[in-house]
Fold this sequence. Notes:
The structure holds 2 protein chains of 2 kinds. By secondary structure, chain A is an all-alpha fold. Chain A has a single domain (3-281), classed as Glycosyltransferase (Alpha/alpha barrel), CATH 1.50.10.20. Chain A is built from 12 helices and 2 strands. Chain A has a two-stranded antiparallel sheet with strand order 1-2. In chain A, a hairpin with a 2-residue loop joins strand 1 (182-183) and strand 2 (186-187). In chain A, helix 4 runs antiparallel to helix 5 and helix 9 packs across helix 10. Chain B folds into 2 domains: 1-71, no CATH class; 73-361, 3-Layer(aba) Sandwich (Rossmann fold). In chain B, strand 2 (109-114), helix 6 and strand 3 (146-151) form a beta-alpha-beta unit. In chain B, the strands form 2 sheets. In chain B, strands 1, 2, 3, 4, 7, 8, 9, 10, 11 and 12 form a 10-stranded mixed sheet that branches. In chain B, helix 4 (87-97) crosses helix 6 (130-142) and helix 12 packs parallel to helix 14 (321-329). In chain B, 36% of the residues lie in helices and 20% in strands. Chain B is of the alpha/beta class. Chains A and B meet through helix 8 and helix 10 of A and helix 7, helix 10 and helix 11 of B.
Amino acid sequence: MDWIPTALDFLSDCVGPGYAPGTAAATEPTALAALALTAHGRALDADKQLRALQSWQTTDGSLGVTEKEPHPQWPTTLAVIAWTKASTNPALFQTSIGDAVNWLLQQQGETIPPRADNIGHDTMLVGWPWVQGTHSWLEPTAFALLALKAAGKSDHPRAREAAKLLADRLLPEGGCNYGNTFILGQQLRPHVQPTGLVMLALADEHIDDDRVAASLEFLNRELPKQRSAASYAYAAMGLAAHRHAQTQADESQLDELATRALEEEAPLRLALLLLAVSGANNPLYPSCVPSGGKQKATEQ
Amino acid sequence: MSDKKQRDGEIQRPACPKAAAKNAPCAKSNSPTNGGEAEGKFNRRALLVGGATLAAAGAIGLPIARRLLAERSPVFLASNQSYSGNLASTIESGLHETGFDFNWIRGRKVLLKPNMVEPTRDAPHMTTHPAMVVAAADVFLKHGAEVTVGEAPGHVRDTEMALAESGIGDALRSERLKFADMNYQDVKQTSNRGHHSGLPHFFFPQAVAEADLVVSMPKLKTHHWVGMTAAMKNLYGTLPGIKYGWPKNVLHYNGIPQTVVDINSSCGRTIGIVDGIDCMEGDGPIMGSRKHMGLVAIGTSLPALDATLARVIGLDPTKINYLQFASEKLGPIEDWQIDQRGERWQAVASPFEILDLDFLQYLRADGVLVT
């Protein structure tokens, strides 16, 4: 784990990171960098990232994918999670959180009238899309559920429906992909990253469904095989959030992923790996209490 | 002929016939094609046909006039190919046969765009084989191009995983080739020059915006919504997920055939080099079965290339919506308009299984019975 201090220094020095060197400052890597820095006790450095996010918020409360691209706004959810769970002084961000949550609750995925045999999942559940005007998909819906939970809105009807949607789209043998189960009668394959994220979002839900346990088993089987930072990190976090027994990763596996992310100066991958090894301090876990004390978004 | 002129209904003989198709510009005008013998023959024929057509245009209508003015395009097919064979030699020969101008490419930026939609080691027949990518890179590097491999995987956010599972990551590292993760690059807004969908513009990633030539390098597969996917549909992967989602649902909502043609109309100069060695039939483009064909297909007109491959797999290209749309502006799809180089498609044709759904079975070429 020699890479951890180097990775933290890298994220501390890079306020408002893009997805790759030389690219525009981006909301997702910045939010996850803030969370990773806080998880490893660098809350003051995290605050710089949080303020960067604040500066990109538009008047409607949303944040675009990058500083230069105000649309689409799917990473707004990640800013909410970061502001609520990575700040030493959450009061500084209360208005931002309230505006962002208000925006989030106005967004919804397009529903599709049920079509027999064509689509396996319940297409009438609303959830959240990647881009306004399109159908809901698993990762934006999982991020939205995590954001609402972080903002103290776990019981909001949209949050309850989101949990139902995530569970609905699990595959019969466990795991999920971007958000399709059956198409034209054919069952699709599970993918590690969305399964890890969905398990993370469902960690404090009480869902009586064998597919949840099967999904965790899928992650546990796949974890040691992962050769990419994001899939590894989400798998590890999905398992840890459920306190599921986890096949211990070979340390060389993690070192290799982190070394490559450092060589390629990949902030998002480094932030995810740092979060994955942060144990109980991981602010992405729904049950994790924010460092600045539990806070609620401004009531709308 | 510019898109605007076509839209306005103005029939005007272009200075170079190839300029009529944006994706196959002529050799003397900054073009990747060399204006070889076939083009010369076509020019004379087209002038004769064009003159007659112009005179009759008022009577028979502009669509038919355009059709009669349409150019011919060469498509190269090589059979008995394997991933362990000398694919670079095949690709170089195919490019020569289709009139590609290697002098034009020297010093220019070439983007190789394989298909890595949702790679898994369990289904290598879903994605472009690394050997094809490396071979194409070798050819363009040999001729002095600056080569980048780029992809915006359509169903997975984790591009590092996609590179690992497809085997392309290891191959690129081994060959020291550059990779552009186009899902997350900065974008450039470009007008939609196709006008088939309602999208006013596209956001292309930096690697596409800066490329002098985009080489579509798909896997030949059936597609359970539109019949088949090859060089044209593969260009869905030139659009970044951060703007269009995973999957790129914005495109689906605006019509798959329409957006396929619009992207092809808008993304700059293209050619196609198709991995038709181990293909996918049945429930493609993700869950289908492997079908070995041993083919490499190359074309400087993507509609002509895809139309030829449709015939190879037993579909009628004139029934495939995006090829119908493409034939109006982008390139020819009728068999008589396509000059076959290398193997004739009839010699290598082997109908693919497709799902037993009416809208897919309708695409079958007459007389082909495979379910």
